[in-house]
Amino acid sequence: MKLLTQGNPKLMKGEKKGYLSFVLHLAPASVSGWNVCAGATAGCEAACLNTAGRGGIPNAKSVTVAGRHGDIVVPNAIQAARIRKTAMFFQDRETFMELLAKEIAAAIKYAEKRGLIPVFRLNGTSDLRWESIRPACFGGKNIMEMFPDVQFYDYTKLANRKALPANYHLTFSLAENNEVQAFAALANGLNVAAVFRKVPAVFMGAAVVDGDETDLRFLDPKGVIVGLKAKGKAKRDTTGFVKEAA
Asked: What whole-number distance in Å separates Cα of residue 103 and Cα of residue 91?
């Protein structure tokens, strides 16, 4: 089973800046029966990019895959693979982490051969506390500590993530019900990503940068709002997850 993927159009934009992104996609929220998004909201679940791009293209025949509570019928092999990865993460954590480390090591070599800097986003469709996952096979280290010279980055709705490794960059994700936490994140030096119908120049008292230009959030200046234009199902949002420019 292959864990990391690349080729997402937005991720590929980073190549123009000299970076090659690799992403881990799990089955989001509780799709698999295991919850990988502790801070999920109704708005973000409805707008989730899990079904964007190839993840939303149905096969001629649906696929049945084993979830936590029994078989799950999904529209394509990509969705089935994400459920299998999630099941492996929870049911065989040591093997999962060993495989992840091997793939990261291989990805580093692949990127360097192409003259690009490898970067990794492990919460492509999840919100796990990777800094707290310290398997025995790593001798008590987390994945960032196993690769201290490599940049990792993610979005998160979990406001209380602390003691992050120096090579792990987080951007707080604004939803329909966590504005207080978002203001606190800004005050604590974290950037805040927000989805808009029309991206403004200023929001929440902070300058807005174009979050669709690339996915390389660790390159953003500090103290900004990362503006993302509503796409796919998010265009029909009525929960308040998608923001109106003030």
From this structure: 19
CB atoms within 10 A of CB 78: 19
Burial (CB < 10 A; 0-12, 13-18, 19+), residue 119, is: buried
CA pair distance 121, 127, nearest whole angstrom: 11
Give pLDDT tens digits for 84-112: 999 999 999 999 999 999 999 999 999 99
Residue with tokens 């070599």: 109
Does the predicted TM-score (pTM) go above 0.70? yes
Tell me: the pLDDT tens digits for 144-187?
Answer: 999 999 999 999 999 888 889 999 999 999 999 999 999 999 98
Per DSSP, the residues of 77-134 read HHHHHHHHHHHHHHH-HHHHHHHHHHHHHHHHHHHHHTT-EEEEES-SS-B--GGG--
Return the closest-CA partner of residue 134 out of 90, 86, 94, 91: 94
Q: What six digits make up the tokens of 19?
A: 């970076």
Name 238's Cβ contacts closer than 8 Å, sequence gap at least 6: none
Of 94, 38, 35, residue with least CA distance to 69: 35
Question: What whole-number distance in Å separates Cα of residue 150 and Cα of residue 33?
Answer: 32
Backbone φ/ψ region at 241: left (φ over 0), alpha (ψ -120 to 50), beta: alpha
